[in-house]
């Protein structure tokens, strides 16, 4: 299991493709160079001003070191103004423990389910019946955020998984995000 950030950005109207192009051209390799595993990157199909993505770290200490290296490094310094100009909010972040997730090539749509089980003990039987390894189940990581320059949501106990649109809904409060994977074509073109 890894430490995974599920990040949902609210962008200025019409700025999503600008951020995606910059992200794919500069930020994927820039983060990978400091030990961050960049996972799926997505357009939110129900909100044209949302960009959703994941990144993973082996553990919390690695997370802190990698984030410090990236956010004090040349790639971020050079491109942060352009990236920040596209964003209204970048603080909708869940800190999770799980396998991370990158969609298979050719995947057109993924559903990310963010579930707030009111009965954590009942969740495991639900997961055993309805979720397989392909769903990449994640759970809240309750470790303290040791890189406070990047806030994460706290005080929540969630389960997050990824799967095809027809996954059965759970019986607890749930938000389903319909996501379109960002292809690597933009990254190769840059």
Automatic annotation (TrEMBL):
Database matches in InterPro entries: Dimeric_a/b-barrel, NIPSNAP
Ranges of residues in domain NIPSNAP: 4-91
Superkingdom to which the source organism belongs: Bacteria
Name of the protein this chain belongs to: Nipsnap superfamily protein
Organism: Streptomyces roseus
